[in-house]
Each structure stands twice: as structure tokens, then as C-alpha cells.
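Translate sequence into C-alpha cells.
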Amino acid sequence: GYGCGTPAYLPPESALGKWDDCSPATDVFLLGTMLYEMLSGQAPFEGFTNTAWFRAATHRFDALPSSAPAELASITNKAMARVPTERFPDAGDFAEAIEQFLEHLPAEQQTQQATENLAAVTTGIEAAKKSGSPMHPLVRRLISVADQFRQARATWEAAGVTRADTNEQGVSGDGEIPRAVQINEFRSTGIQRTRIGERDARKLLVQLAANSGDLVLAAAQVEELTHLSDASEVLELSRTVDAKKRQRGLFRFLFATSVCVALLAAGWALMNSFDAATARADQAGEKVAAAEIAG
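Result follows.
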């Protein structure tokens, strides 16, 4: 027979009246629907009674909005899995997942803020190139963004596991992925996102610093990238900075040479001028002497 309850929130086994399939995982589904509503602003199986019942029985609901935090969306989807055995086993495990998300939340917020700041600086750089505005303020902001990603990574690394499964290293006997492994996947993903963000910020810094002539800053960023990028990419950036250094060295040599040539030329001209003046003075003296003798 048909199940009973509010159709907009019913798990499939209840909507279909499959009472033998009901278990603590059924309660987890109901908790998941409440979390779904908080994230999306609506119940999963919205509609008139018959429509909502049909959607619940066939497990048809809209995907969560992209604005929902990825880890929280994953918790919601797991709690609302169609098959009961694919959900959290009980409300305790569901609560643990929420607690772990809250522990990760500061790191997630820091990562998101750094990502948004990097996008804003990148847009500012493109605008500055078109308008010819100075890049120095953007370079300072970019240094700050790179440091923000590094701080976010430290926060992710400090976020531990609140309660590990008895089998933390692999798949359990019934085929379920241990909760600790799932948590570590979120943590690892967060750390990787911050590494990619810092890498992109520092690569952009190398380009800006090298183009503006701040080769000390460019070289420092290449050094930082040795821990974030593969060796070939770091080598290529290092070669770019070295080429700029050689160009600067050549420019300085040519400038110094031109200055020396100019000084020598000026000295030579001064000596010639002095010699000419001396010759004219001697000629004048000789004329005076000749006049005196004639007189």
C-alpha cells in the first residue's frame, strides 16, 4: 500500500509503502530533506499532493544550487540517496558529517575569499593593461592574495578528523567507504585548491614583476613555486627571469659604455678646444713681440 507522511519530504521506501525497507537510514533521509530545504529554499518534492508523492516515490528532485558549499551538498546528497544502504547508517553518522563540515568551514571560507580576490586582481590587471595604469598596487594585492591561499592551506591542514572509523584506510567489509576516508578526501581537495590558487597567484606575480623590472621579487616568487609547481614549469619561469636579468645586464653595459664614450668625446673636445685657445694665445703673443721689436 501507499506510505504515509508529508509527501514533500518522504523517502522512496516510505512513499512506496515498503515498510520492510525502513530503517535508521530512513530517518537520515528525512534529516537530509531538511538540510536540502535550508540550502535550496524549497522542499525536495514540491508540488500538489499527488505530484509530490510521485516525485518522492520516483526520487526526483532538483539539484542543489551551485552556491551551496560542496561538502555540505555532498552530505545532503548522501543522506538523500535513493537506496537506504547508500545513506549514512544512522543519525549519529549524519551529525558527525555536519560537525566535520563545521570544522572545515573556516578553511572553506578562507579559500573562497582568496579565490574571489584572485579573480578580482586578474580582472584589474587586464583593465590596467588596456588603460596603461600602473601595476604596482595590483602587485601588492597579488602578494596578499598568495599569502591568503597559504593561510587557507594551513587552516585546511589543521582541520582533523573528529571521530575516525574503525577501518580508516580502505573500504569496509560491506563495501561502504569509511567516513574518515571521505573526510580526508574533502580535506585533501581543499588543500589542493589552495595550492593551485597560490600557484596561479605567484605565476602571475613572476610575470608582472619581471615585466616591471623587479627581478628580485620575480626570483623570490620562482623560489616559492618550487613547492607548488612541477619542475619543468619552474625551470621555464626561472629561464624567463634569467633572460630578463641578462637583458638588464646588457642594457647596463651598453648604457655605461655609451656614457664612457660620451665622456671621452667631451674630454677630447675640451682638450682640442684648450689646445686651440693656447695656440691662439701664442700667436697673439708673437704678434705683440714682433710689434715691439719693429717699433
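Note: The longest helix spans residues 231-294.
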